[in-house]
Amino acid sequence: MNLIIQGLEVNNSDLRSIAKLSHADGIERITGQAFRLTNAMYSNDIPDYCLQSELDFAFVKPGQELSDIKLIVMDMDSTLLAIESIDEIADMQNIKPQVSAITQQTMKGEISFEESLTRRTWLLRGLHQDTLQKVYDERVRLSSGAEKMLQQAKRFGIKTMVLSGGFTFFTERIKEKLGLDFAAANVLEIENNKLTGKVVGEIIGREGKAQVLKQVRDKLGLKREQIIAIGDGANDLGMMAEAGVSIAYHAKPIVKQHATYSINYVGLEGIINLFA
């Protein structure tokens, strides 16, 4: 196997130590933040060493290439975006602590996503719809490395999709801004220019995300192994299970346990380096 090491700062001494632990026979530079250790073997000491040194590591099969991938599907909040959009909406109504607390329960898998979204959306009732645009204009920002990852995806002809348990108000704008191919999320009910505190139709949660991904996968005629799914919370586990490669991005422990690879320190561009 090849062992990919990435970090915000990768020291030569760390590379040499990890090469020794993994019995690797060579060290190759991918970028200034990413390195490939060739013919490496797994050791129980490697996760602990990388944790202490704040380095991401991944054992990948030689020959794994980005050209083999045909679709990248991303969660939106705290994955493609560096914010939780519903928390930022709540902040405009001075109820962010209450909403954030429910968000965290969901991400850890302590309550169902459907219950969580219902409770959080209800707390937003009465908010003027103009607040949504204000949040988009003032609070929305991409996660580090997002644009670089998407540029590479387009270069290889890979389709891209944002699949969110959040709201279509944001996913549709993000889709247009970034030139994504697909987007799906929940629809906020609005009456008289104000949020009613309800969601229109069936909630897209853990199972809903998996279903949408399967529909798009079938539409494109793709195999599971041609898909990368990226997420950070428990409600992403369904869609991640439907992909050949799943990435836990700055994720909760429950997501890391089920993912093919975890990225904890570098940005989304780190995903591209796994296929270099």
Automatic annotation (TrEMBL):
It comes from the Bacteria. Its cofactor is Mg(2+). It catalyses: O-phospho-L-serine + H2O = L-serine + phosphate; O-phospho-D-serine + H2O = D-serine + phosphate. Residues 3-40 form the DUF4072 domain. One of its GO terms (biological process) is L-serine biosynthetic process. GO terms for molecular function: L-phosphoserine phosphatase activity; magnesium ion binding. Its EC number is 3.1.3.3. The active site is at D75, D77. GO terms for cellular component: cytoplasm. Pathway: Amino-acid biosynthesis; L-serine biosynthesis; L-serine from 3-phospho-D-glycerate: step 3/3. Keywords: Amino-acid biosynthesis, Hydrolase, Magnesium, Metal-binding, Serine biosynthesis. It is an enzyme of class 3 (hydrolase). The keyword Hydrolase applies. Gene3D superfamilies: HAD superfamily/HAD-like (3.40.50.1000). Belongs to the HAD-like hydrolase superfamily. SerB family. This is Phosphoserine phosphatase. The lineage of its organism: Bacteria, Pseudomonadati, Pseudomonadota, Betaproteobacteria, Nitrosomonadales. The gene is serB.
